[in-house]
Specification:
The protein has 129 residues and is mainly beta. The chain has a single domain, classed as Jelly Rolls (Sandwich), CATH 2.60.120.10. Helices cover 0% and strands 46% of the residues. It is built from no helices and nine strands. Strands 1, 2, 3, 4, 5, 6, 7, 8 and 9 form a nine-stranded mixed beta sheet that branches. It is globular and about 45 Å long.
């Protein structure tokens, strides 16, 4: 059995281990850690309180799960207040974004296929409207 103090195999990742994954700054107050596979990509996004990501789109399908905190999900013409445990689907090519108020948020995004621009360190959300 392996615990948090023992070296884990390279196929095990810890949500609270900020040394794992490829670091990327998406915007002011928004950062992510990227974990890329061949057919899918995970992105652990941290959004500080009172932050907003740019409204953007990309061809890849995206699913998101709010792991911690609260956020407002912006998609198409709508906005929905999300709470811990809520999740959403964004088809490719749909404008979307997120913002926070008093509480920050931790979001797990899943992309398929993987976003090529996220395979390297950098900044920004990628494609825009």
């Amino acid at each position: 059995m392996t615990d948090n103090t023992t070296k884990v195999p390279d196929w095990v990742f810890r949500l609270d281990d900020d040394t794992q994954g490829l670091q990327r700054v998406l915007g002011p107050g928004i950062s992510t850690r990227i974990f890329a596979g061949e057919q899918a990509m995970l992105s652990v996004v941290r959004v500080e309180p009172h932050s907003q990501g740019s409204i953007h789109q990309h061809p890849e399908e995206q699913w998101g799960v709010l792991l911690e905190g609260e956020c407002i999900r912006i998609q198409g013409d709508g906005e929905v207040r999300m709470k811990k445990g809520d999740f959403w689907h964004t088809p490719g090519g749909v404008l979307h974004g997120v913002r926070t108020e008093e509480a920050g948020a931790t979001i797990l995004d899943v992309f398929s296929p993987p976003r090529e621009e996220y395979r390297k360190a950098g900044s920004g959300f990628g494609m825009s409207p």
